[in-house]
Amino acid sequence: MPVVADPSIDARVGLTIRRRFAVLLGVIVIALAAVVGLAMHGLTQVTDRAHVLYSDNLATLAADAEATRTISRVEQLDAAVGGRTDAEQRARAQELDADALPAASTAVNSLIQRHADDDPEELAHVTLVSRGWREFLRLHAVGTRDATGQSTSTEALAASRTLDPVLAELAQLAAREQRDATEAVGALDAGYRHSLSTLLELGGLAVLLALGAVLWLTRTVVPRVGAYSRYARIVAAGGAAEAIDPRGNDELDDLAKALDNLVGEQRRRADADARQAEFASMLQTSQDESEAHQLLLRHLSRSIDGVTTTVLYRNNSDDRLQAMTAVAEESPVAAGLVGAQPRSCLALRFGRRHERDADESQRASLLDCNVCGKVPSSTRCEPLPVGGEVIGSILVEHERPLGESAVACISDTVGQSAPVLANLRNLALAEFRANSDSLTGLANKRAAEDTLKRMVAQASRLVQPMALVLLDLDHFKHVNDRHGHSVGDEVLAAAGATLLNGLRGSDFAGRCGGEEFMVLLPGTDLQGAKVLAEKIRAGLANVRIPGTDDNLTGSLGVAVFPDHAGNAPDLMRAADRALYLAKGLGRDRVVGADALQSPAVPAPAAKD
């Protein structure tokens, strides 16, 4: 039986295993991406700052060096103007004015621009350099020298002394720039160490997050996988394991629910198979059809809740449908069986299952079942096929829809019951034919003798009287001789019917052979037996012999246990002697075994 999927599987609320792995992967990827991103950002900042500092320091140092070089050249040329011949003096003076001074001015201006945004300390040095250079240019412009190159004015002498402080300031500025470069390198190192520390911290945090996600996934998945695996191994080995009863909403819980459903279904199947096997075993040991029918009803009632079962049979003449189990008088089935024929049941007519849903009862149907068509609940009627012939059907009425297990139970029950019921029916029919007289329908001689022994034994146990009446039809041989055996058979059949009509439900009648009959009356004394015998005799008097105006008469002998005999054979002989006495007294009378003790009893007459 296929396992039906749980609808809750498609309506999960919690994290599935796939989503948990996705979350884990997302945490790891995000953490790694954050670490890499921050590391790249930090390294980029360090690199950019290093380039900026390097370029700035390099340009500043170059500007300082250029200013120092050009001013030093100016100082050298200015000093070289003196102490030379006129020609050399003029050449040096021309070189100083035309080349050295403009170059130095350009270098000083460039230096000023490079330090325009520096800190106040560096700006102070630059300011002093600028002032000293401008002062040198002023003094140089107003100063004169003699033919020997010596200064001829106070300004000229001052100009030569102005450049020394300027060069000293440039030296200090260069030292300052060198110190700044050293500090910048330290700051870069500190930034690098900070970036490295941040990178390590973030990397550690990412590792911790990844480990935490792995541990979380492991704690939520691995134990359940182990438990479900152990459960599956136990169940596969045929052992008994408690239900998992998962409470989550992921794939593993779906697997556990499926395992629980599978094991539950297997157990239900095993229980159903055990009940079915027990039913089949008990059915094989049924003594008769009635017991088999009751077993069938109890089996379906215990296997399927809320069902009403009726066993329907064709009768022996195959012209009537009858219920073999009790049917409530108010049930529509009882009304449907009144005058029903086998074709009235659609399952018997078509030889296949007939189902009727109560919810669809209002819909028009092409053909309604005369037996169960008026039942208010749903019905399922299964035919009982045996050897190509349908002997009957099993009608199941149910209020709730039948599940797959219930349908399988009904089908299995029908399949197991049909051959057994057919065999029991055939055995009952064979036994009936073996113990019955085909002409009168009464028990034959063997069955009558067996019944006599049984009823005498029962009367002995109950300490109750039991009367035996023997009937012999008068002049029956003459009926056969005059009118033929066919008329004689009709007379015998009429006599049998008269016996049955005059008996109680507990009484027994049988044909001992020829025209002799036996009647057993449990719990009846001699006087009561004589009364009943007289009723039988009177009933026979109303039977007409076909083709004549003659009435049928009979002689009856009555004996009672234990008054006249203590066992069955003796009781039979006592009743037979009484019958002979009735014949001897003129026939058409009832004689009790008590009359045999009278000395005036005539000799028995011969039977005819």
CATH topology of the largest domain: Four Helix Bundle (Hemerythrin (Met), subunit A)
What is Rg? 66 Å
Strand content: 5-15%
| Shape summary | rod-shaped
Helix amount, in percent?
55-70%
CATH architecture of the largest domain: Up-down Bundle
Mean model confidence by pLDDT: 79
What number of structural domains do the residues give?
Answer: 3
**Distance between the first and last residues' Cα:** 74 Å
Helix/strand/pairing category? alpha+beta
Counting H and I runs of at least 4 residues, what is the number of helices? 14
Indicate the low-confidence ranges by residue numbers. Answer: 1-13, 144-153
Largest sheet: 5 strands, antiparallel
CATH class of the largest domain: Mainly Alpha
Give the helices and strands as they follow along the chain: HHHHHHEEHHEEEHHEHHEEHEHE
Strand segment count:
10
- Largest sheet, order of strands side by side? 2-1-5-4-3
Plain-language structure description:
60% of the residues lie in helices and 11% in strands. It is of the alpha+beta class and 608 residues long. The chain has three domains: 19-207, Four Helix Bundle (Hemerythrin (Met), subunit A), CATH 1.20.120; 286-431, Beta-Lactamase (2-Layer Sandwich), CATH 3.30.450.40; 436-597, Alpha-Beta Plaits (2-Layer Sandwich), CATH 3.30.70.270. β1 (307-314) and β2 form a beta hairpin. α2 (86-114) runs antiparallel to α3 (120-142), α6 (289-303) packs antiparallel against α9 (404-435) and α11 (476-483) packs across α12 (485-501). The two termini are 74 Å apart.
